[in-house]
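To the wet lab folks,

You asked to see what we're planning to order before we commit. Fair enough. Below is the target structure as tokens, and below that is the sequence we designed to fit it. If anything looks off to you, flag it before the synthesis order goes out.
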């Protein structure tokens, strides 16, 4: 599968930070090196010893899965399936380095689960233009949050439209919407 997306996709570095494989400082340092070397971020992170090849493959798999899950969020779209053909424009000289196997049935099942949850989320966030504002400065310590939920909370400014939060979130679109809905339901954010 060759995945082409015109939208903002989760970057490999952000996925590795979110997974706890690299620190923000390590990522920033390697990104500076990448600008001058032109090498792939994953290759540089492996060369510096920050991660191993398996962790980069896992991040690539996560990136592709999250892009595919986002397809289930589209109200409509155009799709084209090309069997054993690849237009010259789509050939990637690094393709052999970035091949990832993904089970289609797992993608479909997770996508359908997300569609179900999205129906509930949209009762809380009916329109991404909804402007939310923080009611509390910090998440309550008595609740347990995933590192991803904390990162989403930390990325929320004092006041913002949900659409901006989705565009700038350190997490996937679905997970960000779900976290914002939870924050709204608990009164930590308000419309």
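Sequence we intend to order:
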């Amino acid at each position: 599968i060759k995945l082409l997306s015109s939208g903002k996709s989760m970057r490999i570095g952000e996925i590795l930070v979110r997974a706890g494989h690299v620190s923000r400082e390590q990522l920033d340092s390697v990104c500076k090196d990448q600008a001058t070397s032109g090498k792939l971020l994953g290759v540089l992170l492996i060369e510096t010893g920050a991660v191993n090849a398996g962790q980069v493959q896992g991040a690539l798999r996560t990136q592709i899965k999250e892009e595919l899950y986002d397809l289930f969020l589209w109200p409509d779209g155009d799709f084209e399936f090309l069997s054993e053909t690849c237009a010259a424009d789509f050939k990637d000289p690094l393709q052999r380095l970035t091949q990832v196997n993904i089970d289609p049935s797992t993608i479909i099942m997770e996508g359908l689960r997300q569609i179900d949850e999205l129906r509930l989320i949209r009762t809380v966030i009916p329109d991404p233009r909804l402007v939310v504002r923080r009611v509390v400065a910090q998440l309550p310590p008595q609740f347990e949050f995933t590192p991803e939920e904390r990162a989403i909370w930390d990325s929320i400014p004092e006041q913002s439209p949900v659409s901006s939060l989705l565009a700038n979130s350190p997490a996937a679109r679905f997970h960000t919407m779900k976290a914002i809905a939870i924050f709204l339901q608990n009164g930590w954010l308000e419309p």
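Structural context that might help your review: The chain has a mean pLDDT of 83. The first helix runs from residue 12 to 18.

Thanks,
Computational group
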